[in-house]
Write a structure and sequence with these properties.
This protein has three helices and no strands. The protein is mainly α and 79 residues long. The two termini are 30 Å apart. The chain is 30% helix and 0% strand.
């Protein structure tokens, strides 16, 4: 599956091989990567920020009662 995602369909996933995979399975106690082996870089955080910002711009993530963030605020939220 990751090879299908990498390339023309989702080019950014080539740089982030776990993107689009089953996070619940990957982090499960039985078959996942143990927490002591989790790693994250500034590049990972920038990638996530771009994805969230894009989802807010496309209105895939919107303010609601539990998180009334301002979609124009690029410093804080959504939570």
């Amino acid at each position: 599956m990751p090879s299908m995602i990498c390339g023309w369909l989702r080019p950014e996933s080539c740089d982030y091989p776990g993107w689009g995979m089953d996070g619940v399975r990957l982090h499960s106690r039985d078959s996942g990567v143990p927490p002591q082996h989790w790693c994250i870089t500034k590049a990972d955080l920038r990638f996530l920020r771009r994805k969230i910002r894009g989802a807010v711009q496309e209105m895939e993530i919107v303010p609601h009662d539990l998180d009334p963030f301002d979609p124009r605020d690029t410093k804080t939220g959504p939570n």
